[in-house]
Amino acid sequence: MPDEPTDRDQTLAERFGRLNASDHRPLYRQVQARLRTAITDRVLAADDALPPERELANLFGVSRITVRKAIEGLVNEGVLETRQGSGTFVRAKVEKNFAQLTSFSEEMAARGLDASSVWLSRSEGTVSPEEAMTLRASPGTVVYRFSRVRLANGTPMSLEKATVLGSTLPSLDAVDRSLYTALKATGNRPVRALQRLSALLLNEEQAELLGARVGDAGLLVERIGFNGDGAAIEFSQSYYRGDTYDFVAELSLGD
Amino acid sequence: MPDEPTDRDQTLAERFGRLNASDHRPLYRQVQARLRTAITDRVLAADDALPPERELANLFGVSRITVRKAIEGLVNEGVLETRQGSGTFVRAKVEKNFAQLTSFSEEMAARGLDASSVWLSRSEGTVSPEEAMTLRASPGTVVYRFSRVRLANGTPMSLEKATVLGSTLPSLDAVDRSLYTALKATGNRPVRALQRLSALLLNEEQAELLGARVGDAGLLVERIGFNGDGAAIEFSQSYYRGDTYDFVAELSLGD
DNA sequence: CGACGGTATTGGTATTAACCAATTGTTAAG
DNA sequence: CTTAACAATTGGTTAATACCAATACCGTCG
Hints:
Chain A is an alpha+beta fold.
């Protein structure tokens, strides 16, 4: 320990939050959580440099190895970026794995963010011709439609319109916070999905709901979810802001 | 160093290969390479347990932390799997971890559509700072750059800028129609890739080359290609028109 | 004013040394 | 013979320390 905490360190410590002795998670997890909230709470803005690893170690009262392990995880998630000789920076965009079937709630939970939604509408009806086609359902089949804005720590992330077969849920009210949780409860959670990503310009409605401007770049992810029997049970369209979201995929190039 | 190498250790050491003192890569990379070849050469078969970390450390003459760092990377790639209290095992099916992610036009091309390109530039140079970062190459490393517009049946589909390490190709002219074909000929075809998709608005240059208008929605696909040793050898940025291109992925439930 | 070069800063690699936590195998008790 | 308790094995976490490598900053020189 080369020197005593300075006044500035004290300030930083308060801004990051001290570690809790009664927390039984590994230290590096706790440090990770502190850094995460510092980012989501805008204590650290995009492109900001974190304090040096050695300083963070002092600050939290842990070794530099522990700090590095914490940072390493956030780098893997695409939240942080390290540059040797320069520093560690907050990445401007969120990276989302395009090849993993996870729900929004799960994704955000994995990042330590608080997922919430604002319901726009929730209705019962019969399949539209387009839905009938994609879900391979007969005309007249009952479906539930859910439309909502998904938020992470209060910030709009995506606009989601989902349609699920009526036979997969007991009622419209079965969906509380997570659609997938509701589907899981009835054993109808999708185990496979077909997903399509395309670019578009946000229209007025989308821009307003996402806190962006008309004509900004946006991403549309359309997904068809299949249950264990190979039947299509869910169709959703999600709109993302282009400047806050990246989709990452790891792939094999076998011939 | 608790005990001397035993006869069995000697055998194992020969099977894995000793570390080379003249190799200037980091030790954990060298250990990683040894483990990789042990797996590809079937010295370690699927579901086999690796020797314990402490034993590997002895074997290679490095610290346990170094061994752990080597293993960690292979776990991230899906090659190995660790089970606390039990051991570290070779994963049975590596490919299954990675999604196949194909573009629509790749599928079209596979169905006999005429894929062609117009070369914009083709040059030899040294890595830019950004390329050095993504390819993990030292400054001054020779690279080849290829820039072209890709067409399907004469219609511009994408604008592609690719950079490959100079050591992977005999010369600039080795690339005729397909970069991958040229890489394959020298045994440097990427076997794994990391791909990022993001939305953007097309600028003047991009719009003109793609036959679109400035401010139209576009997709940027950045890809880093890795060879069998896990070394990054290719970095490419491809711009697509948002209205003519979709990316499709089939995904399965993770875990 | 610009270019060069040293120096301080910052992340990257590596060792040694403990101890914790989960699992597995063995041993002793019933 | 089964089961419970224990011990050994193995990966997981953390510390303290040292040096390397890339970068940024600043002063000096031309």
